[in-house]
Amino acid sequence: MTVKELREAPKLAPLYAKALLPHSGGGGLPDTEYVRAGVEFDPAHVAAYNQVCGFRLGDELPVTYPHMLAFPLQMALMTQPDFPFPLLGMVHVANRITQRRPVRLTDTGTVRVRAENLRPHEKGRQFDVISEYTTADGPIWTEVSTYLRRGGGEGGGKREQLAAPAPKAIWRVPADIGRRYAEVSGDRNPIHLHPLTAKLFGFPSAIAHGMWTKARVLAAFEGRLPDAYTVDVKFKLPVLLPAKVAFTSWQTGGGCYRGAKRLDEGRWSGGGWAFELWAAKKPKPHLEGTITPPDATPNPR
After folding, report:
1. 49: Cβ–Cβ under 8 A, 6 or more apart, which residues?
2. Phi first, then psi: what are they for 190, rounded to 5°?
3. Which of 108, 178, 231, 281 is deepest in the core (most CB within 10 A)?
4. Considering the entire predicted model, what is its pTM?
5. Whole-angstrom Cα distance, residue 284 to residue 277?
6. Strand ordering across the sheet containing 138-150
7. Does position 159 have pLDDT exceeding 90, yes or no?
8. Are 214 and 188 in contact (CB under 8 A)?
C-alpha cells in the first residue's frame, strides 16, 4: 500500500473544482492510504459543529465529530485520477462508526483514510471508505462510509414499504441547514446548498447532509450512551429542505425489531437501541440505524 503523509488538511475548494473536471477513472480502488499526524481539535470549531447538530458543549466530542477530520482526506482520495468513479454522482448509502472510548478536546492523534471492498450492488457498485483516528491509546475511532455508484447493476424488486412508527419527537429542519452544516464541515456539495443548484442534479430542493441527520439523531441520545459503542446507519430517502421529520427509537435485546420496548430513560443495558427517522407527513423513511456494543456484528449492507 502506498502511504501519502499530509502535513495539513487538504483544501476542499480546489478538490470540489477538481471534481467538476472530466474523470476517466481506473479499474479498481487505489491501494493508497492518506495519513495526517499531529491532529488537534479547535474548541471554537467543535462548538460551532455542536450548535448546528444539536449537541451540548463538553470536553468529550460527539461520536460524529471526527468525521470532520477525515472528510478532507476522503475528498483527496476520491478525487485522484486513478479513483474508479467521479465524485459527483456517488451516493452515501451507509455509515458505521465505532468509538472505543470518547474522543476528547485535549487529544492529539493521527487520521488515516483508505478505500476498500469494491463490490456489486443491485443498483450498481459500492465500496467502503475506512477512516481511523488513532492516539497513544491506539485506534479509538473508526468509520466505514459506504458509497454507491449507480449504473450497471442487476436491479432489485420493489421492497415492502412499512408504515411509519409512532414518533417520539417531531423536528423542524430549516431550509438553511445544508448551508449551515456545509460551513462547519466543508462539505459544499451543491445538492445541499440551494434549491437551484440541487435541481441541476435532479432534486426538487436542497437536501440535508446524511451526516447531519446522523448527528442530529445521536444528539437525541446524548447523556444516555456508554463510552464505547458502534452506531450503524443506512441512509434512505433524502430530507428535502425545509422539512418536518419524525424520530423514534426503542431498546433492543440482542436484535433490532419493531415492537420492542421503546427507549425512554436509562443507560446502556446490555442490548442496544434501534432508531428511525421518517418524513412527518408521509410514510417515507430517511434513516434507520442501531447502537450496539462495539464488538457486536454490524448490520449486513
Report:
1. 55, 62, 65, 68, 184, 185
2. -60, -20
3. 178
4. 0.90
5. 9
6. 2-6, 32-39, 109-121, 124-135, 138-150, 91-99, 229-235, 285-292, 272-279, 243-252, 169-173
7. no
8. no
Domains of the chain: 1-153 (3.10.129.10), 166-301 (3.10.129.10)
The closest of 137, 133, 4 to 70, measured between CA atoms, is: 133
Q: Hey, what's the torsion of the CAs at 228, 210, 243, 215, to 10 degrees?
A: 20
Residue showing cell 414499504: 161
Task: Please report, as a single letter, which amino acid is at residue 130.
Answer: I
**Cell match 446507519: residue?**
233
As a whole number of angstroms, the distance between CA 147 and CA 136 comes to 30
Which residue's entry shows cell 497513544? Answer: 136
